[in-house]
Design goal:
alpha+beta, nucleotide-binding, five-stranded mixed β-sheet, EC 6.1.1.15, binds adenosine-5'-triphosphate, binds magnesium ion, about 30% helix
Length: about 425
């Protein structure tokens, strides 16, 4: 992408309405634009990151055996009357009446709809287990939408739903998702700690919230210091094992939200911090399958009401939470797996023929090698270019200027550490390809 062509409306001033750093930086970096309270348009830079995050979520869901589908945003109230949640959900649900006076709603979650789809088609234990997910916009009419994408009204969620014949099966599905979530967040370069959570209005037996530690988090959380050092990707077992040993080991390391915190059980080396909920998993048994009659024929021909769980990740909130966890005075520091571009080429003097020739050549070679590159080919002061690059947080910056070229070097800077290296063009390329 050439920066001269890119729709990237960065701001120099700090927007007054933004109270937390992720909101400020997303506005300043030209990632989003608020269109109504708690509702945002994703501009090209923000959209790239949102897709990166969604793709990692998708890959880990697929790896864990879940199957992707897509359910609509608009739902019929009838299903929610069957589950008993139509009244119970309260004012957070955006209710809509269509021209035929039918009661509809903008889905805040999809337990009812998926249970209805499941029961229409699945009639036998032979078709179990099943785990289905989608990545779709949700709407919750939050009483106080705030902090930008962290608590929006319209937000992107990955939600999936497991269906099993018995409790043992359902718990295995839960453990699989527990592992998938640990891997998902670790791959994004962030530390999300699973904390024993209250099951709240969805109800049920077993639940963990995945929490990122950040000063601006809305909840108070407590965890064993060991969580900060765990390397989940190195340890994680194959997803097709029964995962018991793994699950027991991880859940034995203390971590709890305020509601579940028990000072008597907490370890000596306790971390007390603020946390952001980026994911939440539930096992709730027959809570929906019973009232909605999701029943299959068991091995002995007897009817069995299926065991269910649901699992959510706030995909759009994750984008903001990553910024909360990874930024400095100058701007965003994207972990490489979710960065909008891997590398930026900064042309210090676009009217210098040799400088632009080298930049164009680098740009062509990198793009040809499928490296995602942002090429700053604008006729701007170097200071403004560096400030923009630091603000939008591209992990690697390759600076090309006439003086360096005379000495046969370009400068490669790593955004995360500020570390700079002078390298020949070929050595610089070798490092980032
Ligand atoms: P919160 O406690 O923050 O209100 P929740 O417990 O109501 O979230 P869940 O029903 O567990 O949310 O939904 C799954 C995930 O969706 C959450 O873990 C969170 O990451 C995300 N999420 C929920 N509400 C919002 C929101 N208003 N804006 C952005 N993401 C949200
Ligand atoms: Mg909520
Ligand atoms: Mg919550
Ligand atoms: Mg929750």
């Amino acid at each position: 992408m050439r920066m001269s062509q890119f729709f990237l409306p960065t701001l120099k001033e700090t927007p007054a309405e933004a109270q937390v750093v992720s909101h400020r930086l997303m506005l300043r970096a030209g990632m989003i634009r608020q269109t109504s309270a708690g509702i945002y348009a994703w501009l090209p830079l923000g959209w790239r990151v949102l897709q990166k995050v969604a793709q990692i979520v998708r890959e880990e869901q697929d790896r864990a055996g879940a199957q992707e589908m897509l359910m609509p945003t608009i739902q019929s109230a009838d299903l929610w009357k069957q589950s008993g949640r139509y009244e119970a959900y309260g004012k957070e649900m955006l209710r809509i009446t269509d021209r035929h006076d039918r009661e509809m709603l903008y889905g805040p979650t999809n337990e009812e709809m998926i249970t209805d789809i499941f029961k229409t088609f699945v009639k036998s234990y032979k078709d179990l287990p099943k785990n289905l997910y989608h990545i779709q916009w949700k709407f919750r009419d939050e009483i106080r939408p705030r902090f930008g994408l962290m608590r929006g009204r319209e937000f992107l969620m990955k939600d999936n739903y497991s269906f099993d014949l018995d409790v043992e099966g359902a718990k295995l599905s839960y453990r699989r998702m527990f592992l998938a979530y640990l891997r998902t967040f670790a791959r994004m370069g962030i530390k999300a700690i699973p904390m024993r959570a209250d099951t709240g209005p969805i109800g049920g037996d077993l639940s963990h919230e995945f929490i990122i530690l950040a000063e601006t988090g809305e909840s108070q959380v407590f965890c064993d210091r060991r969580w900060l050092e765990l390397d989940v990707l190195a340890e994680a077992p194959a997803p097709d094992s029964d995962l018991k040993e793994f699950f027991d080991r991880y859940t034995s390391i203390y971590a709890a939200t305020e509601e579940m915190h028990d000072a008597a059980k907490a370890p000596a080396d306790l971390v007390t911090a603020r946390g952001i909920e980026v994911g939440h998993i539930f096992y709730f048994g027959k809570k929906y399958s019973q009232p909605m009659e999701a029943i299959v024929a068991g091995p002995d021909g007897q009817p069995v009401t299926v065991e269910m769980g649901s699992y959510g990740i706030g995909v759009s909130r994750v984008v903001a939470a990553i910024i909360e966890a990874s930024h400095d005075e100058q701007g965003i520091i994207w972990p490489e797996p979710v960065a909008p571009f891997k590398l930026a080429i900064v042309n210090l003097k676009v009217d210098d023929a040799e400088c632009s020739r080298v930049c164009e050549d680098l740009y062509a070679r990198l793009t040809g090698a499928k490296v995602e590159v942002l090429y700053d080919d604008r006729n701007e002061r170097p200071g403004a270019k560096f400030a923009d690059m630091d603000l939008i947080g591209v992990p690697w910056q390759l600076t090309v200027g006439p003086r360096g070229l005379k000495a046969g070097v370009v400068e490669l800077k790593r955004r995360a550490t500020g570390e700079k290296l002078e390298l020949s063009v070929e050595d610089a390329l070798a490092r980032v390809m």
